[in-house]
Model the fold of this input.
Amino acid sequence: MTEKLAPRDQGVPDHRALLHPGMARNYGKWDYHERIRPGVLRYVAEGGESLYVVRAGSPRTMSPEVVEKICSIADRFCQGFLRFSMRTNVEFMVEKAEEVEPLIAAIKTELGFPIGGTGPSISNISHTQGWLHCNLPGTDAAGTVKALMDDLIADFENERFPNRVKITTSCCQINCGRHADIGVIVQHHHPPRISHNNMQICDLPKVVAICPTAAIRPKVVNGTPSVEVVEEKCMYCGACHGQCPSMEIRDADTDTLSIWVGGKGSNARGGPSLMKLAVWGLPNNPPRWPEVSDAVRRILEAYREGAKDWERVGEWIERIGWQRFFEKTGFPFTKYHIEDAPGAMWTYNRSTQVRI
Amino acid sequence: MAEKNGGQESEKTQLHTPLLDELDKGPWPSFVTDLKSWSKEKPVVAQLLNQLEDSYETRWNYWTGTVLNITGYGGGVIARLSDKADEYPDLAEFHTIRILPPAGFVYSTQRLRNLADICKRHGAGILQLHGLTGDILALGFSNEDTRAACEELMANGWDLGGSGAALRSLQCCVGQARCEMACFDTMKTTQYLTNHYISFVHRPEFMYKFKIKVSGCGNDCANAMIGSDMPIIGTWKGPMQIDQEKVAEFIDQKGVEHLIDNVITRCPTRCISLKGKELVVDHENCVRCMHCLNVMPKALKPGKEKGVTICLGAKRTLKIGDTMSSVIVPFMPLETEEDFKNLTDLIDRIWEFWNDHAMDHERIGEFIARVGLGTFIEGIGLEPDARMVSQTRTSPFIKFEELAPGRLEGERAQEPVVWNREPESTESSP
Done:
């Protein structure tokens, strides 16, 4: 091993060399911003300079051909700089108002990316890796997002909701997609199927310890150390599957999708909140998952219709109550909507405040 | 190789994707269309799409996770082996490299081209900008390609991101680079902490993963509050800045009803009232939620003495259920070198106490839930602060150290200890 290694532990590339000149000049000296039109923001610096930001929805997964097209546009219009948003949008920046329209035209014709995702719109969907490259998924991610955004694109390109709507999808119950106004999650419905012949690849004490309901016990099977699962205790979460691939939690025939609503990270008004169950038992139906799109659309329409300005989905539901939420969306409220995790009693209606 | 495989083999590596073709349709940009076009350049991408097509048909996944490390690193490569390597030989080893992005996801085209060029020469060239972990994800490298790509990436000033029980790649909002709401320099903080703790990013040595996300204000565009073990959120001390002339302009433009409906009645602590065309704010009760600033960005600004609130504990469901972050340090400035030193001192204490006492696979939120916030802050040397809780306790069963220990210790000191003694006679002697 005389081969020379490249430098290690260099850390992040220095962002100061990668800022658009308009950002660099006015760093820390911004005065206010306004939304010129959906997808276009204008930031005004204390010294009076403007920076126009055009936000374009990307598919996140991109070939070098698409990356090159993005670079080419940024070279011609944006002095060779660009930015990606937290929700995988590409942001192109120009300093003059008259540069905005030609930039948008180039993005649309050369990249085919829609312009939007600002203000009270649906932003790009944060998603996970899915069948494309994860080792645990029960469904796809990029494809689900493509199908859903095809359906919702008009609400990406327009600002016509009471407040912003953030959507995430997750392809297993670990839920890497995180909380959002609307979240789509896979659910499993059986205890793990154990490959006893393949348990030597797993660290058995860790497999036992990781189970949140203590449903996994050591057991010798056919003379070799393995585990067994107490089926009554198992809640099909798949924690063991992440720990040990021989504990297969997925089932192509029975896994379903569910929709959760009302998550929010922002501290504005009521503060952050977790998302709660709205709809369960939707089929995992590639390539377009139409049942998911329909359900999301129903929730969005009810929200658009019923929420006050600035209310996020969760704040709207909190104000009108879950009974009205189910009435407005037409989905059934079932016994499965009632929490049974630790602390469940705090989620019951502990008052006589009832809409009758 | 291609010739040897010829005939039947090459048929399997030809694109055959009737289900995925459905995703060519529709107005949203399609990764399928893009990757199909790219597969003409990179045949391995055709195999990737064919395997994905198989997943669409069977609703089953064909990737197995494995481990691959680069010399000197304990993470950063998400290694995958295809279960269908017989059919798709080029997917036998098909790994993802996690690459640390610049803070705030800002790029020059020169750097972005450099990245894409290295990834396409060594691997499948597919980039994801960015993964939910905050990394640049580069897909499609064999074992050998992964090593070669990483060496070239590092020679070009890129570095690997975190994976496993490590400090994960930090993420931040655009911050002061482009936003008037940002109360501190989020990009600098992200860069500083990443580089200061770079060894913890590259060598997983914690009980489990630890994520830090950085947002310039309470709007939390970095999704830190629900998506990181340690959110660092911008805030300020003292009154917010109010430009009453712009308040009057707002009222003239939008009407007083709009102000009442969208600002005054929406304040979570009801600390705003109206006097003529002037906003009157009960600054002592403002909780920096940012709502009124969002509605009136020209008239209202954060206060002048800026800093951060530091929280701890968010994670998703597994295993004890969702946890949210809660306040650990209500306010600290984050500007000078000394401020940053205070922050890293705090992080050092948090990590030490957590890693000394947590169980395997226990995130910090789960750890705090198990030991209790009171025990935790004592462990990291912080005084209790009422701003850490939304209410005081409801359970009256408490081990008061001030009231109980003297007696307990006294009893322990006696011989034999109180609870081992024969019961004393209760009858009084005649």
